[in-house]
Amino acid sequence: MAQKFFARPYRYGGLVVDKTRGSAGARPARRYGNVSDLIGDLSHPNARVSLDAILALTRFADDKRVSSALVSLYPQLEDSWRQSAVIGVVAQAPDRFLAEALAASSPEKLKDFVATLCNQTIAKTNSSQLVALVTATANARARADSLKEVALATITRGLNAAPAPDWTPQLQNALQKLLHSANVAIPAATLPLVARWDKQGTLSEDVKPLVQRLTARLADTSLTDNQRAQVVTSLLPVRQMNPEILPTIGGLLGPPASPELQRRVVDALGATADPAIGSALATAYGRLDPNVRPAALPSYSNGQIGRSLFSMLYSPGRRTSIS
């Protein structure tokens, strides 16, 4: 693959000579202002020609033919050069490309693409583009729910890096659509965004029944560890809306919850800056699986959580062993 990239074709007047195939690779040169020709070159057997075509399409990012072609191409790419080049084009109109991915016939193949797209948009700290991504996600059909989850989870992980967007009717409508999805995983993945952006509690009536349903799901042993861990991540940002949330989450810090689920819960709690978390961790410390206990100790470095955990573990009369 590296040989193909560094063997850049020579351009002589009206011919392009592919150095990896010799003179037999000669063909008429493309006029690189023609979108159709460029799209045709995306799947060229010489990866360097394909890369050049991707880069040349940057100025045509708003063309639906381009978004369709690049979204279809991305899962086929096996090299970081062309993957990065595609994301560079995507950055010009991320919501258009996300909408294209969400409408794809095989969404499962595009999870990496959607995650990378959302990460790159968050890194640009452009709040208007962030709203556009959420809107595109909300407007997609139910068959794209797996990609919606990826988009929402990726945006949630980047909340601390991105500025909160202005609260607008567009954002409110998009979040309401997501909160009322029939697939419970979608509203669950939306909750952290509502908790961070809806500072006036505009959607409180939409959120309250959802919080109650999700809190009940924490105790549902028919769910996989991953599903229950995702519910924990969704509920922690809105824990003030239901006093049962934190105690119920604390109930997962020990048997019969699996060590893997216990570890996921400890990680989620440790990432939350709330002194009450320290109390929850300390109360459950003795019940934690021995292999999970070391994961709770880094919480000492988490400001008030650490101080709360330390005081609980070493309070007079308490004999919890740190081991």
Explain the overall architecture:
The protein has 323 residues and is mainly alpha-helical. It has a domain at 1-90: Leucine-rich Repeat Variant, CATH 1.25.10. It contains 18 helices and three strands. The protein has a three-stranded antiparallel beta sheet with strand order 1-2-3, with no helix packed on it. β1 and β2 form a beta hairpin. α3 (47-56) runs parallel beside α5 and α13 runs parallel beside α15 (259-270). The longest helix has 14 residues, at 204-217. The N and C termini lie far apart (50 Å).
Oligomer: single chain
Distance between the termini: 50 Å
List SSEs in N-to-C order. Answer: HEEEHHHHHHHHHHHHHHHHH
The largest sheet is: 3 strands, antiparallel
What is the spatial order of strands in the main beta sheet?
Answer: 1-2-3
In CATH's first tier, which class of the domain at 1-90 applies? Mainly Alpha
Q: What's the rounded overall pLDDT mean?
A: 83
Number of helices: 18
- Tell me the radius of gyration: 25 Å
Which topology of the domain at 1-90 does CATH recognise?
A: Leucine-rich Repeat Variant
Count of distinct strands: 3
Helix content: 55-70%
Residue stretches low in confidence (pLDDT < 50, at least 5 long) are: 1-31, 300-308, 318-323
Strand content: under 5%
Gross morphology: elongated
- Please identify the structural class as seen in this structure: mainly alpha
CATH architecture of the domain at 1-90: Alpha Horseshoe
